[in-house]
């Protein structure tokens, strides 16, 4: 284990009907003007928007609507939200959605109280926000675990870059699995694959032995696979959605990462693929992971063997990677670039740009060269 300090900023209200409990405990602590932030409209058709509005009105809040936060949220949308917060003197931000809405709001929160551009502050000066407009998160689609950390993943369209920006962690998060029942099956599985990826990327990053985080990570991964399989037989299995919702939080709330090096190389490649193609995050990961792992499987044979046995009940490192790929196919998730929904045609030239601009992780089983990343991407074409 490396040195660490650990504390937790987010109170979690988990389970059916937990929004009412959260709001009665939390809304009295925040100011009158609340920005109600959401995505492209799913919350309007499934009734969650009306429920949030009624709860906020009952608590005597003035509501400022902020809609249209897109999947893979853009930096322009962050700036639009921050301007609205300042203009309307917003006291509290309620993010209602998935990783995209929550991430966008985390960065809006920090940007709204800064006198400088948050991107320049973080990427050029290496400084990070210490305060922001208080916020809460209501999760309507799970997978990213974004509700329990301060990091946002934002696409800067002008810079052709998708990457992390630190914002403000939600003070509280509502995780009601029933809210996810309206999520389309492909999005449910893509989100759950993201959770599996977080488990794998955390697990494969460190080489120390007998670490409790590895044991927990393997359990989270296995549980994610078990519950995804349950959903393949019954998409409305609320218990499975509930299990996946907590797997999602567990995989990315930081607990598995304390005192460890993580890998997250597949994520870095996927984020830049997202910057060029606007592809779905979980689906991009599904395409990249097997090819990436075939390149590094020989660099961490013991860890891959343990993963193979614990998550997929097979015996060898290579069989573990094959089982992962078979599982992706079983879920109907994409395995090739051509199956991704993209704003541009994914050509070798696009993939070269992705390889030339993505972050390279120095830990993990092995550091990759840009040419090897390109090779991995070409194997997915
Ligand atoms: O926009 P609406 O209409 O709400 O539709 C959304 C969106 O199209 C829909 N949806 C959400 N809740 C729904 C629903 N549809 C029906 N019923 C509901 N209850 O789902 C679609 C996808 O939403 P999105 O928020 O984009 O998905 P996800 O939660 O997978 O978030 C992806 C974003 O999170 C980032 C990704 O890079 C990506 O930008 N990540 C954030 C992380 C973090 N902050 O810790 C870690 C992750 O690795 C990831 O990078
Ligand atoms: Zn992810």
Architecture overview:
This protein is of the alpha/beta class and 381 residues long. It has 2 domains: 11-179, Rossmann fold (3-Layer(aba) Sandwich); 184-380, Dehydroquinate synthase-like, alpha domain (Up-down Bundle). It contains 15 helices and 8 strands. It has a 6-stranded parallel β-sheet, sandwiched between helices. The longest helix has 22 residues, at 212-233. It starts with 10 loop residues before the first strand and ends with a helix. The model has no long low-confidence stretch (mean pLDDT 97). The structure holds 5,6-dihydroxy-NADP and zinc ion (ZN). The site of zinc ion has 6 residues, from helix 7. 5,6-dihydroxy-NADP binds next to helix 2, helix 5, strand 6, helix 7 and helix 11.
Write the layout of secondary structure elements.
Blueprint: E1 11-14, H1 18-26, E2 33-37, H2 42-45, H3 48-58, E3 62-66, H4 75-87, E4 92-97, H5 99-111, H6 118-123, E5 135-139, E6 151-156, E7 161-166, E8 172-175, H7 185-203, H8 212-233, H9 238-252, H10 265-277, H11 281-296, H12 301-312, H13 317-330, H14 348-357, H15 370-379
Parallel strand pairs: 1-8, 2-3, 2-4, 4-5, 5-8
Antiparallel strand pairs: 6-7
Helix pairs in contact: 4-5, 7-8, 7-9, 7-11, 8-9, 8-12, 10-11, 10-14, 11-13, 11-15, 12-13, 14-15
The protein binds 5,6-dihydroxy-NADP and zinc ion.
């Amino acid at each position: 284990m490396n040195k660490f300090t650990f504390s937790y900023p987010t109170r979690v209200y988990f389970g059916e009907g937990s929004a009412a409990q959260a709001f009665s405990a939390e809304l009295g602590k925040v100011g009158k003007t609340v920005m109600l932030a959401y995505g492209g409209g799913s919350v309007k058709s499934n009734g969650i928007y009306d429920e949030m509005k009624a709860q906020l009105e009952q608590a005597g809040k003035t509501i400022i609507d902020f809609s249209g936060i897109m999947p893979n949220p853009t930096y322009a949308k962050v700036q639009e939200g921050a301007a609205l917060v300042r203009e309307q003197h917003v006291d509290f931000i309620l993010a209602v959605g998935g990783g995209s809405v929550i991430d966008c709001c985390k960065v809006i929160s920090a940007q709204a109280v800064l006198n400088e551009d948050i991107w320049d502050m973080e990427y050029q000066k290496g400084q990070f926000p210490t305060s922001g407009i208080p916020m809460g998160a209501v999760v309507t689609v799970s997978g990213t675990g974004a509700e329990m950390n301060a990091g946002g993943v934002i696409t800067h369209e002008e810079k052709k870059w998708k990457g992390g920006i630190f914002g403000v962690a939600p003070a509280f998060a509502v995780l009601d699995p029933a809210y996810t029942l309206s999520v389309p099956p492909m999005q449910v599985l893509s989100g759950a694959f993201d959770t599996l990826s977080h488990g794998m990327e955390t697990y494969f990053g460190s080489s120390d032995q007998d670490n409790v985080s590895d044991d927990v990570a393997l359990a989270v991964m296995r549980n994610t696979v078990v519950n995804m399989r349950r959903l393949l037989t019954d998409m409305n299995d609320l218990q499975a959605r509930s299990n996946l919702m907590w797997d999602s939080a567990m995989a990315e709330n930081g607990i598995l990462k304390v005192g460890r090096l993580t890998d997250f190389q597949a994520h870095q490649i996927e984020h830049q693929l997202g910057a060029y193609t606007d592809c779905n995050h979980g689906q991009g990961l599904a395409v990249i992971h097997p090819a990436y792992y075939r390149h590094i499987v020989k660099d961490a044979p013991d860890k891959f063997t343990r993963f193979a046995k614990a998550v997929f009940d097979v015996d060898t490192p290579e069989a573990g990677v094959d089982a992962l790929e078979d599982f992706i196919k079983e879920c109907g998730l994409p395995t090739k670039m051509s199956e991704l929904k993209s704003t541009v045609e994914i050509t070798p030239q696009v993939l070269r740009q992705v390889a030339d601009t993505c972050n390279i992780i120095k830990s993990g089983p092995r550091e990759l060269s840009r040419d090897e990343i390109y090779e991995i991407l070409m194997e997915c074409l």
